[in-house]
Amino acid sequence: MYCRILEAFRRIHLRTMVIISVTVSVISVAVVFYIQSYSFFSSIKQDFAVDMEQKVRQSIFENLDSYLKIQESLNQLNTAIAGTGQLDLWDEQKLADILLKEVAENSLVDSAYFANEVGGVVSVGQYHDQYTISWKQGMKDGELYVYSADRHGDLLHLIRTEPNYEPRLRPWYSEAKRLKDAFWTNVYVGNSVPALMISNSLPLLDEQGNVVGVFGTEILLERFSEYLRTLSISPNGKAYLVEPGGMLIASSSQEPNLLFQQEELVPIQAQYSSDPILSGSWNLIQEQIQKEGAFQNNTQEYRLEEENYYLDISCYYYKDALRWYLIIAVPKGDYNQHNSMLFLKLTATAAAFLAMAFVLGVLMAKKILHPIRMLNRSVLEICSGKWGAQIPTDRSDELGELTCSFNQMSKTIEESYESLLWQKNELEYLNANLEEIVRRRTKELQILSITDELTGIYNHRYIVETLKNKMNGWKKDGEPLAIGIFDIDFFKQINDTYGHLEGNQILITLSQFLKKNIRYEDVVGRYGGEEFLLIMPNTTLEEAYQLADALREEASHLQMGQSQIRMTFSGGIAACESNNVDEIIRVADAKLYQAKAQGRNRIVS
Fold first, then answer.
1. Which end of the chain is less crowded, N or C, counting CB atoms within 10 A of the terminal residue's CB?
2. In angstroms, rounded to a whole number, what is the distance separating the alpha carbons of residues 104 and 581?
3. Greatest CA separation found in the chain?
4. What pLDDT score does 25 carry?
């Protein structure tokens, strides 16, 4: 019996033996993994939901802390700097510059301000990437001027004035002064920004302990909603932040926390929320808040709209100054779905293990048998006179040593042959492509040498050289020749108002307009700055004036740049009367200045 089994074993091909051994090994590992994982997922119950909500709660609390701490830190920094005397508290411009830099560099600070004991105030705020700067001139009591500004502190325009604004009556000032310590306001609706806000303030004290002024910062609570929406609670899980009185501060849903009521923005109360999860569970939430008092967290299961929910209610404290309630609601079905998906992934993984076992067996058999077959094939090729055969190998056993010996035998012949072949191909390639490369590069350099880098039309050197050539032709055949010099009206004012980038865009647009609308025989180029030179062959002075004036009229209707600016240009026309290039340009330039002097947006010939 033993001899028969041994004989049958010897008859099995090496390939079949490798596949069977690898498959059996991987199947054993897959079965053990499947059994253990199934037992683990079968044991998951409500404690998984509780643990998940605890992690979400901890993450929310940590982020709320970071949002609020940055407000306090900025006020502490400002009072520390002011205490050293490095801030001029009576210069509203310098104070605004410092506060603007702090607001621009701190993405979690929406507004920063300072007010003093005589009613002076300066405030810098940002809302949706729009900046405002408000101050009372001389940091004294008087009208409050509210300006829009850019990120660099440049005032754009006056938005409004407030003659009766008194910062010392505001809670952020009066309470900080009374406490002589940091103060957090209640949540309120912003005066100039339609959003819920909260402020932190810190008084500035002199050496005798008297209040000199108060620094403050402000944060939009919509930042909390934006953060809650980024959380991966569950496919249908929601998170809400509510004040003890029931005011909705933030929500992971798309519901706003403000609504119009009698033409006034008012905060939404949780019990009247349009979100059925929050409004439907508010009575239960309120019962838990009243029942538990100063509790830390409470997770329970409840039913709402034909579905069971896990409801986690926790209290968020910030330095005994703020107290809010965090509600996390997750449908129970989300966790069941989560577990079902994990179980399906487990089953798919086990099936993948089985497929991998068979594939791995095939690959291992191929790895063992392939070098042997390659060696046999190469030996047959050498016997037929095909030199240079090489067999790839990474083995160090006897079969690998035999393969290396074979490769060494034909290495010298192969290297010599490949070297000669490579050199031949390289020379052929170079010969075939060198002329094309030189021609293409020469053409590119020629284009670059005559093209204005900004506008894409001809540059100063080329347009003047072209004029010289045209004038030589005029002298030879006597055909009329005229030129026009155009200059954009009030271009410096455009640059000062809209910026050089917008000015460059206008130059580009006008250049392409001229290039597109001139005649086929005309040539246009950028003469310098905002000036353009137009060469009009076979054209009398009167014809040139008509052509230039038509271009001017059509260009005046264009809307250019991102600001959709309507610009005009003036021009001077001159006819060729000698072969002196400088003389005809001087005449056209003088006509251009006449056009400017006569009111611009005209052509003078």
1. N
2. 55
3. 122
4. 67
> Do the Cβ atoms of 547 and 539 come closer than 8 Å?
yes
Tell me which amino acid residue 93 is: Q
Tokens 């004991």 identify what position?
117
Indicate the Cα dihedral angle 594, 539, 569, 463, nearest 10°.
-100
Other C-beta atoms lying within 10 Å of the C-beta of residue 215: 25
Q: What is d(CA 593, CA 399) in angstroms, rounded to the nearest whole number?
A: 93
Classify burial at 402, counting beta carbons within 10 Å of its beta carbon; exposed 0-12, middle 13-18, buried 19 or more.
middle
Q: How many residues does the chain have?
A: 605
Which amino acid would we find at residue 439?
Answer: R
Angle formed at CA 284 by CA 282 and CA 290, multiple of 5 degrees = 100
**C-alpha span between 389 and 413 (Å, rounded):** 10
Residue 235's Cβ-count burial label (10 Å; 0-12, 13-18, 19+) is exposed
Provide the sign of the torsion angle of the four alpha carbons 421, 426, 431, 433, taken in this order.
Answer: positive
Helices (H), 451-574: 460-477, 491-498, 500-517, 541-555
Question: Do the strands 569-575 and 603-604 form a parallel or antiparallel pair, or are they unpaired?
Answer: parallel
Euclidean distance between CA atoms 15 and 8, whole angstroms: 15
Q: What average pLDDT does the segment 141-151 reach? A: 93
The percentage of the chain sitting over the pLDDT mark of 90, rounded to a whole number, equals 40
| Amino acid at site 55 | K
**What's the average model confidence in pLDDT over 156-184?**
93
Task: Please classify residue 468 by burial: count the beta carbons closer than 10 Å to its beta carbon, then call 0-12 exposed, 13-18 middle and 19+ buried.
Answer: exposed
Provide DSSP, 264-296: SEEEPBGGG-S-HHHHHHHHHHHHHHHHHSS-S
* Residues 474, 165: Cα–Cα separation, whole Å: 76
pLDDT tens by residue, 40-94:
544 444 555 566 677 888 889 899 999 999 999 999 999 999 988 888 899 999 9
Identify which of 268, 134, 231 has the alpha carbon closest to the alpha carbon of residue 191. Answer: 134
In single-letter form, the type of residue at position 290 comes to Q
End-to-end CA distance of the chain: 121
User: Which residues lie below 8 Å from residue 19, measured CB to CB, with a gap of 6+?
Assistant: 358, 361, 362, 364, 365
Q: Of residues 223 and 202, which shows the higher confidence score?
A: 202
- Does the global pTM surpass 0.70? no
Q: In 3D, which of 499, 479, 483 has the Cα closest to residue 562?
A: 499
**Burial environment of residue 70 by CB neighbours within 10 A (0 to 12, 13 to 18, 19 or more):** middle
Instruction: Select from 258, 248, 186, 250 the least CA-distant residue to 218.
Output: 186
Dihedral sign, Cα of residue 142, residue 143, residue 149, residue 154:
negative
Which among 251, 249, 247 has a CA at the least distance from the CA of 228? 251
pLDDT at residue 488 above 70? yes
Rounded-to-integer distance, Cα 87 and Cα 75, Å:
14
Q: Do the bridges between strand 183-184 and strand 144-149 make them parallel or antiparallel, or are there none, so unpaired?
A: unpaired
Strands 155-162 and 322-331: unpaired
Return the pLDDT at 70.
Answer: 94
Residue 561 near residue 592, CB atoms below 8 Å: no
**Percentage of residues in the chain with pLDDT exceeding 70?**
77
Judge whether 67 and 219 are in contact, CB under 8 Å.
yes
> Where do we find the tokens 């409050």?
144
| 8-state DSSP, 143 | P
